[in-house]
Write a structure and sequence with these properties.
332 residues; four-stranded antiparallel β-sheet; 12 strands; 24% strand
Length: 332
């Protein structure tokens, strides 16, 4: 599979400034040395607890916030986006788009649907007048809305319909990569499945690639080809979705999966819920060694002293744990 996005050692540190002179006292390491790849036509699911750096990572990839360090290679031509300024990034903006978490706050309430969806086309000089209206009508049809909705405002729509408008806006420039930042978390459960099915259908029809950010592993399993699990600014496990979901190699992934409810009561009764002790450490002063060791039931002195590398295991899975070999044999 051709790689459309290759991220190497990406970091985003936010400075902590205190005192009268606002001197720098440290950094919040929101993203702390992340490596991953996304193939053309692939959905990469990015999961983890709130505050682990998922959204920051997505915004760094799009360069809406500048990364502190690292390389972002994009497209078949492998252009490194990291050193590009705003003017140099402009030719690549239309090839990468974002679907936001909350459709209520991501749509301008003073603009009609026609203005919202058509704005990227106008700004980039791709359509005007009647042609613009026709393009907007086609985009609305692609996401299951009617052309008659063009003159209405966002408040006249339900949450699911607003999210469809956001998706139509993201599709307007025919991007190659869409970063979806928890696009169904603010929606009712019945509507979530409709939006997920829509995204899957659009992917097949338009050859899109997705980075799908979520904290819900059941959603992740449904839509992702591969998954990456983040903890405290780092990826601790990545691999094919089914492989990671059924045979996790990292204790953190194991704990997350154990919390996912199963519809069958008989199966749910037999499952063991793994409760993590303590809280997520402060990203401004992460623990030495493995960042997960203060909450890990398998932690040893080695975990407290040495940072584990992201090693490759059979099945294409990578895990950052000193004892993944032993723990996988025990059936983690």
């Amino acid at each position: 599979m051709e790689t459309i996005l290759d991220v190497r050692n990406l970091k985003k540190h936010f400075p902590i400034r205190k005192g009268l002179w606002r001197r720098k006292r440290g950094d919040v390491r929101a993203v702390d040395g992340v490596d991953f790849q996304c193939g053309a036509g692939e959905t990469l699911g990015l999961a983890g607890e709130s505050g682990c750096g998922k959204t920051t990572l997505g915004r760094c990839v799009l360069k809406t916030i500048p990364p502190t360090d690292g390389d972002i290679f994009f497209g078949a031509e492998r252009v490194n986006l990291s050193p590009l300024d705003r003017r140099e990034m402009r030719p690549y903006r239309h090839r990468m788009q974002m679907v936001f978490q909350d459709p209520n706050s991501s749509l301008n309430p003073r603009m009609t649907v026609s203005d919202i969806v058509g704005e990227p086309l106008r700004v980039n000089g791709l359509a005007r007048g009647t042609e613009l209206e026709d393009r907007v009508a086609d985009l609305l049809a692609d996401v299951g809305l009617n052309a008659a909705d063009m003159r209405r405002y966002p408040h006249a729509f339900s949450g699911g319909q607003r999210q469809r408008i956001g998706i139509a806006r993201a599709l307007s420039l025919r991007p190659e990569l869409i970063i979806a930042d928890e696009p169904v978390s603010a929606l009712d459960v019945s509507v979530q499945s409709q939006i997920l099915n829509l995204l899957a259908s659009l992917k097949d029809r338009m050859g899109l690639s997705y980075i799908f950010i979520t904290h819900d592993l059941s959603v992740l399993q449904h839509i992702s080809d591969r998954v990456a699990i983040m903890y405290l600014g780092r990826i601790v496990e990545t691999g094919p979705a089914e492989q990671v979901y059924h045979h996790p190699l990292h204790p953190y992934t194991e704990a997350l999966i154990s919390a996912v409810p199963v519809a069958d009561p008989a199966v749910q009764k037999k499952r063991t819920r793994i409760a993590l002790s303590g809280d997520v450490p402060d990203p401004a002063s992460p623990p030495k060694g493995c960042h997960f060791h203060p909450r890990c039931r398998h932690a040893t002195d080695l975990c407290r002293e040495e940072e584990p590398e992201l090693k490759t295991y059979p099945g294409g899975v990578k895990a950052a744990c000193h004892y993944s070999d032993t723990l996988s044999l025990e059936g983690i």
